[in-house]
Amino acid sequence: MPRETMAAKRERALEVARRMNEHYPAAECALVYGGDPFRLTIAVLLSAQTTDKGVNKVTPRLWERYPTPADLASADVRDVEDIIRTIGFYHTKAANVIKCAQMVVADYGGEIPRDIDELQKLPGVGRKTANVVLNEAFGIVEGIAVDTHVFRIAHRLKFAGPSADTPAKTETALLKLYPRAWWGPINHQWVLFGRETCIARNPKCGECFLCDLCPSCGKA
DNA sequence: ATCCCGAGGG
DNA sequence: CCCTCTGGAT
């Protein structure tokens, strides 16, 4: 196979993006947070390593029992643990959720900061979670949140080469490949795609809508 | 039974 | 780089 030119790669990348749009039209956040940035932050934090479904099962009771950041800031850890017990990492997350509420109240006047560095000062909020919150709650697109889904997909599509062996290098490759207008949709859609089709092991190439565009397609 | 794979800490 | 925290998916 001849080496793909940059122009050809860019065209392939844009076709990938178009098909993602068709497949995940106007992707809305699956988490239940009532449009409240604080609740969104907590919900995204809780959703790490678990399903949105599992998170949506516990957050309504959390909002009911602790309606405001101030309420959550003074919560008993054991009460919060009881509420979120059915999701992964609940012990760590219960402590983080309360600390987040305390910091939001004490340092940010009860409002989630609209700044990626400030967001990442909240316990349990890393770069990925911060990007999701900025994008979802405020429509701010700082970059592309490279979690393991995006990392895996970028490498399978050969949009990131073997030397792009870190999330940061992979993000750089994607930012160069895609115009800024696509960054937000990528943040949204690739995670869905990575969860249901381009899964880590035994990817479902047989039912994949990108197979003809993918150098790694197994056509299984 | 093993892998998943975000954040934080060593 | 290494490891831990957990329920869920496979």
Automatic annotation (TrEMBL):
It comes from the Bacteria. Its cofactor is [4Fe-4S] cluster. Gene3D superfamilies: Helix-hairpin-Helix base-excision DNA repair enzymes (C-terminal) (1.10.1670.10), Hypothetical protein, domain 2 (1.10.340.30). InterPro entries: DNA_glycosylase, Endonuclease-III-like_CS2, Endonuclease3_FeS-loop_motif, Endouclease-III_FeS-bd_BS, HhH-GPD_domain, HhH_base_excis_C, HhH_motif, Hlx-hairpin-Hlx_DNA-bd_motif. Residues 46-196 form the HhH-GPD domain. Residues 117-136 form the Helix-hairpin-helix DNA-binding motif class domain. The keyword Hydrolase applies. Binds 1 [4Fe-4S] cluster. One of its GO terms (biological process) is base-excision repair, AP site formation. [4Fe-4S] cluster binds at residues 198, 205, 208, 214. It catalyses: 2'-deoxyribonucleotide-(2'-deoxyribose 5'-phosphate)-2'-deoxyribonucleotide-DNA = a 3'-end 2'-deoxyribonucleotide-(2,3-dehydro-2,3-deoxyribose 5'-phosphate)-DNA + a 5'-end 5'-phospho-2'-deoxyribonucleoside-DNA + H(+). Keywords: 4Fe-4S, DNA damage, DNA repair, DNA-binding, Endonuclease, Glycosidase, Hydrolase, Iron, Iron-sulfur, Lyase, Metal-binding, Nuclease. NCBIfam families: nth. DNA repair enzyme that has both DNA N-glycosylase activity and AP-lyase activity. The DNA N-glycosylase activity releases various damaged pyrimidines from DNA by cleaving the N-glycosidic bond, leaving an AP (apurinic/apyrimidinic) site. The AP-lyase activity cleaves the phosphodiester bond 3' to the AP site by a beta-elimination, leaving a 3'-terminal unsaturated sugar and a product with a terminal 5'-phosphate. Belongs to the Nth/MutY family. This is Endonuclease III. It comes from Gordonibacter urolithinfaciens.
